[in-house]
Amino acid sequence: MHKKILRLGRSVVMALSFVLLSTAASAFSDDATDNAFAALLSMPGAGPEQGYWDFPKPDDLPAANETALIAYLAKQLKAGADPNAYRHVGTLLHHAIRAGQERTAIWLLAHGADPRKTLQGGTDTALTLGARYKRAKVLQVLKSTYGLVPDTTPPSSPNPPPQPVDAKRIASLTFGNPATTSWHETICAGWRYP
Prior knowledge:
The chain has about 190 residues and is mainly alpha-helical. It folds into two domains: about 25-145, Ankyrin repeat-containing domain (Serine Threonine Protein Phosphatase 5, Tetratricopeptide repeat, Alpha Horseshoe), CATH 1.25.40; about 165-194, no CATH class. About 50% of the residues lie in helices and about 0% in strands. It has helices at about 1-25, 30-40, 65-80, 90-100, 100-110, 125-130, 135-145, 165-175, 185-190. It is extended and about 75 Å long.
């Protein structure tokens, strides 16, 4: 009797797990996500530096201004758009920052956009893009809400400065007394083992 109850319980748990996983997997809508990207990327200043985006401007986007864009994005998020999906190497947040749509970027942050996501194949985040494009309002929100502050240390030189020559060390390797020093002691002199 107990074995039947355990089997039944196990079957119910597996069925519920399957339902939950399939529901979570379809929580976002690709159409709504594509519509959100199409709207953002059709805004003035949002085009790529070279070439063009393969998203046509949505017919139901009422105007090409940031207020209308935010209202349209809200509608698409309600329809299941994924605010952290990638298109053209970046998320909606990345593209909004790059395009100078600071109000949109801040709205996206307030509605689920992850500021720690990096560009695909890169290391830039919302923070590094905000600093690069000098988006002061976005940087302020990233600091006050997430505690993220741009690194202000200058980038390191690709070629490290030359190390000073240790003449005594070189002399000890070259002119060590073979009668009193083994080859191992000569080679490993000064090395530190963890």
